[in-house]
């Protein structure tokens, strides 16, 4: 496992010496920041309206739920934005090494393919974690000026991490299948889009198939996390998808040797 | 040290290496010579455990490359055709990473890192980005990468390709120096490189070994043939005709240095043939000015071997 750590450190450093990580993180924070601003703005406007109405009719101000109105929507938005951002993080994981020939160094060094796969997976996941941790600043604003519930925030971040782990594993797998980074990015993006849209399709097919398709939808599993519910069945979904993809990645890396 | 037995490798239906066997002793420097796509890189990749063989067995330093890949990898340093460099790293951090995944750590790593930087004369660029280095330095860093864990066996795939003449000489010097305490197998399609660095040559063409000997022996003669150069004072057309008729002479050509007096003769390896040539020159009343044996150059042997093969197929 020491070797995994070396691979991890090298990979992580390469993200942060090239502009990729900064550009992706900056874009993500800008887009999610805009969403956060709009959500908060509409929440504040609504609150004012409620207060005015309450004053007019001499009533008590009704309780407004910032968790439901801002935080939940923020997490749902972020989960969709990450689907667009993650392929850019994972695309180079293996394809870059194949193209530049550095894979020859890894394959002829006394390290196992599992150590390579695990090291790279966690490096990309760390970049992702750094990316979403930037949004803590948005959430902390809410905690400074209001008193939202903490639990949905925690579960939301857990959900984002789990979904990210799955996406990173899928992106790594597709990157291991090609030398071309663009194909790797588009492939990962396409796969994630399908796993997202497939949820809508569940309404148009029979109940049995519908349930299956619904189960495959990434978003379907995320909604509970955004609501503040940590359901182990959703965790199982994300983690099993991630493990399965890592296993396939290992197989893909192993097979490049055989195919030459 | 390296024992290859009946090695074959197929890519789909394409046979890249066919039934190749050779043995390399400890401390030898062996050149692997062949045209492009002859199977050199494939063989090297199998030696270094990059890919498995289709058939046959390969053992390096006493370990089978398939069953004991980890033990082999620890003992082999490999410089692929394109040095496996991470462009965004500095030379020092790159070599330190390679050292770590090769199993070095702590003081030992730092010591070996300094030594390898010094040995490949890359010390002055240790904190430069690899992307900014010249081709020559990149090649050296590639060599440093192969050397860092002090392997017993060095496998170098075209170590001088793309370098300028001065750098080529420097890299060859380095290889010679390394040859003193390493077993080295290097591939190339540049012939002088082999005579400059190697103690033994394996010529490979279309996946098969076509010749295996020291560069001297290969140059000296080939399958019972030899070559002499003579200088004759006489009518060149007639001389050519007469000489060609002598039994045992395979080919006569006029050496084009303008005088029309020098001839290159390929003949069977038999002193009687030489005597007959000399006698016929003298009997015709021409002056025999010079007669000397000249070895086939490695280029010629190489071309002969690799084109013969084509004729057979």
How does the major sheet of chain B shape up? Answer: 6 strands, mixed
Class from secondary-structure proportions of chain A: mainly alpha
C-alpha termini separation of chain B: 33 Å
Secondary-structure element pattern of chain A, one letter each: HHHHHHHHHHHH
Which stretches of chain A of 5+ consecutive residues score pLDDT under 50? none
- Written as H for each helix and E for each strand, in order along the chain, the element string of chain B is EEEHEEHEHHHEHEHEEHEHEEHEH
The level 1 CATH classification of the largest domain in chain B is Alpha Beta
Q: Mean pLDDT of chain A, rounded to whole units? A: 90
**β-strand number of chain B:** 14
Structural class of chain B: alpha/beta
Our count of domains of chain A comes out at 1
User: What's the alpha carbon Rg of chain B, rounded to whole Å?
Assistant: 24 Å
Number of helices of chain A: 12
Number of domains of chain B: 2
Concise account of the structure shown:
The complex is a heterodimer of chains A (260) and B (313). Chain A is mainly α and 260 residues long.
List the helices and strands and how they pair.
The complex is a heterodimer of chains A (260) and B (313).
Chain A: H1 2-17, H2 19-56, H3 66-90, H4 92-100, H5 102-107, H6 113-133, H7 136-145, H8 151-177, H9 181-201, H10 207-216, H11 218-227, H12 232-259
Chain B: E1 2-11, E2 14-24, E3 29-33, H1 40-47, E4 55-60, E5 63-64, H2 69-75, E6 76-79, H3 91-101, H4 106-119, H5 135-147, E7 153-157, H6 165-178, E8 183-188, H7 191-197, E9 200-205, E10 208-213, H8 215-220, E11 225-233, H9 236-245, E12 249-254, E13 262-268, H10 271-283, E14 287-293, H11 298-312
Parallel strand pairs in B: 3-8, 3-9, 6-7, 7-8
Antiparallel strand pairs in B: 1-2, 1-4, 4-5, 9-10, 11-13, 11-14, 12-13
């Amino acid at each position: 496992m020491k070797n995994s750590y070396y691979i991890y450190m090298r990979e992580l450093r390469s993200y942060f010496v090239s502009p990729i990580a900064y550009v992706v993180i900056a874009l993500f924070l800008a887009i999610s920041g805009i969403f956060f601003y709009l959500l908060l703005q509409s929440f504040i406007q609504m609150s004012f309206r409620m207060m005015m109405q309450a004053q007019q009719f001499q009533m008590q101000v009704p309780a407004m739920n910032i968790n439901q109105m801002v935080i939940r929507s923020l997490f749902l938005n972020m989960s969709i934005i990450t689907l667009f951002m993650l392929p850019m993080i994972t695309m180079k994981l293996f394809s870059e090494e194949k193209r530049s020939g550095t894979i020859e160094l890894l394959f002829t060094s006394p390290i196992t393919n599992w150590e390579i796969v695990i090291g790279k997976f966690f490096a990309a996941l760390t970049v992702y974690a750094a990316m979403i941790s930037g949004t803590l600043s948005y959430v902390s604003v809410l905690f400074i000026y209001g008193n939202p519930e903490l639990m949905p925030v925690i579960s939301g971040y857990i959900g984002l991490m789990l979904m990210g782990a799955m996406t990173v594993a899928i992106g790594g797998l597709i990157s291991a299948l090609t030398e071309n980074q663009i194909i790797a990015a588009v492939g990962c993006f396409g796969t994630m889009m399908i796993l997202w849209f497939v949820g809508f399709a569940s309404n148009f097919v029979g109940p049995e198939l519908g349930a299956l398709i619904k189960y495959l939808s990434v978003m379907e599993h995320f909604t509970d996390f955004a609501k503040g519910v940590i359901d182990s069945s959703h965790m199982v979904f994300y983690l099993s998808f991630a493990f399965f993809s890592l296993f396939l990645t290992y197989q893909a890396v192993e097979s490049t040797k055989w195919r030459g | 040290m390296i024992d290859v037995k009946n090695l074959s490798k197929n890519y789909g239906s394409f046979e890249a290496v066919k039934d190749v066997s050779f043995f390399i002793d400890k401390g030898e420097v062996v050149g692997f010579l062949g045209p492009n796509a002859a199977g050199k890189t494939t063989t090297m990749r199998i030696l270094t455990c990059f890919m498995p063989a289709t058939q046959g067995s390969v053992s390096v330093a006493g370990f089978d490359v398939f069953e004991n890949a980890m033990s082999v990898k620890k003992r082999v340093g490999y410089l692929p055709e394109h040095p496996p460099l991470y462009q965004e790293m500095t030379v020092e951090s790159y070599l330190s990473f390679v050292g770590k995944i090769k199993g070095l750590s702590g003081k030992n790593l730092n010591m070996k890192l300094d030594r390898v930087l010094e040995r490949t004369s890359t010390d002055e660029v240790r904190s430069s980005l690899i992307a900014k280095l010249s081709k020559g330095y990149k090649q050296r860093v590639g060599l440093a990468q192969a050397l860092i864990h002090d392997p017993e066996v060095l496998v170098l795939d075209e170590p001088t390709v793309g370098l300028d003449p001065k750098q080529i000489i420097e890299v060859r010097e380095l290889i010679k120096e390394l040859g003193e305490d390493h077993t080295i197998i290097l591939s190339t399609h540049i012939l002088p490189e082999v005579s400059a660095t190697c103690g033994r040559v394996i010529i490979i063409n279309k996946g098969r070994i076509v010749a295996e000997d020291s560069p001297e022996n290969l140059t000296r003669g080939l399958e019972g043939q030899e070559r002499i150069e003579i200088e004759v004072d006489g009518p060149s057309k007639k001389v050519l005709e007469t000489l060609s008729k002598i039994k045992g002479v395979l080919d006569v050509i006029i050496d084009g240095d303008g005088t029309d007096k020098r001839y290159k003769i390929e003949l069977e390896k038999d002193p009687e043939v030489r005597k007959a040539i000399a006698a016929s020159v003298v009997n015709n009343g021409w002056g025999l000015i010079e007669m000397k044996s000249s070895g086939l150059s490695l280029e010629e042997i190489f071309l002969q071997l690799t084109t013969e093969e084509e004729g057979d197929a």
